[in-house]
């Protein structure tokens, strides 16, 4: 609101170069969207290859804009990160995932874990671990249903601090996965210090495993690394049967991707569950 005054005159004037104004308008609208429940979570299933079961659902936020319709996260998460709104947005996502889990639990359906994406900015927030604990306590759920997906950029700032945060979360039963694994620039040193349970191989490697020797080699190496460290390994972005076949051969443990299902609404997920296509 404080930055509004000067810009308000040309707020709706399309003849001016409108970049900063669009940004400002979007920031204001996003702030309102969080407060008025315009955000919605979709869920993408993660399949365990050995059991054929859906063991986890990744919560992915969308903005159901009253005029523009569904806006994908790539169009508003960066803004939320720049403005600090991500902390509030992230808390909404966590609360909302907990509420959904609670409803499914009370209905006796969909026992899968839920994975929630955590932005590096949110992770650096001083009250991050407290927020997570508090939100779970309010939900009265047992915390072990929850997985937090963090990227390498979240953890490289201050190793000691990160270990402390992750250990606090682990101690209450929350699991941690490294998202987009392989595209960060960090050393692998952290893997032996951090309590993590899962590596998610970035889609950019999985995409060409069926026709690119280097991508196949890298994917295979990550899978082997994951096994040696006793971690779950998720291949992200699996779209083709030929990719799935290779991932089975290379002993990947779980997959996500359009081949199985895109992210879908909670209602669609329940329909799948009730039609017996989801365990
Ligand atoms: P991500 O965490 O790497 O999520 C995976 C993205 O890949 C999702 O896009 C998903 O819809 C998409 N995807 C899944 N399977 C396939 C496939 O087979 N092919 C292709 N081409 N894409 C696939 P989405 O939902 O648009 O999310 C994009 C990114 O936005 C996420 O990447 C994550 O970084 C961020 N994001 C989404 N929800 C949240 C959230 O609640 N909090 C935070 N901090 N970030 C979020
Ligand atoms: Ca993710
Ligand atoms: Ca990812
Ligand atoms: Ca990503």
TrEMBL record:
Q: Which residues form the EAL domain?
A: 23-277
Protein name per the record = Diguanylate cyclase
Species the sequence originates in: Paenibacillus abyssi
Q: Which residues of the full protein are shown?
A: 151 to 429 of 430
């Amino acid at each position: 609101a404080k930055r509004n005054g000067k810009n308000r005159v040309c707020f709706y004037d399309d003849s001016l170069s409108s970049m900063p104004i669009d940004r400002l308008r979007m920031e204001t609208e996003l702030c309102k969207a969080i407060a008025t429940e315009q955000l919605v979570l979709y869920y993408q299933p993660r399949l365990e290859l050995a059991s054929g079961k859906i063991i986890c659902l990744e919560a992915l936020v969308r903005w159901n804009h009253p005029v523009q319709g569904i806006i994908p996260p790539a169009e508003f998460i960066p803004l939320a990160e720049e403005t600090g709104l991500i902390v509030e947005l992230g808390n909404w996502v966590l609360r909302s995932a907990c509420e959904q889990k609670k409803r499914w639990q009370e209905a006796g359906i969909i026992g899968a874990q839920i994975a929630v994406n955590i932005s590096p900015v949110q992770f650096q927030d001083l009250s991050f671990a407290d927020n997570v604990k508090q939100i779970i306590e309010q939900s009265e759920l047992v915390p072990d249903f929850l997985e937090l997906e963090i990227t390498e950029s979240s953890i490289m700032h201050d190793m000691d601090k990160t270990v402390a945060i992750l250990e606090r979360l682990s101690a209450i039963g929350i699991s941690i996965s490294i998202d987009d694994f392989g595209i960060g620039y960090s050393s692998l040193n952290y893997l032996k210090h951090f309590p993590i349970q899962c590596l998610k191989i970035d889609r950019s490697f999985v995409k060409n495993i069926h026709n690119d020797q280097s991508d196949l080699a890298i994917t295979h190496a990550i899978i082997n690394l994951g096994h040696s460290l006793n971690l779950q390994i998720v291949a992200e972005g699996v779209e083709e049967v030929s990719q799935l076949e290779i991932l089975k051969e290379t002993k990947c443990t779980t997959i996500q991707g359009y081949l199985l299902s895109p992210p879908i609404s909670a209602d669609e997920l329940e329909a799948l569950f009730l039609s017996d296509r989801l365990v």
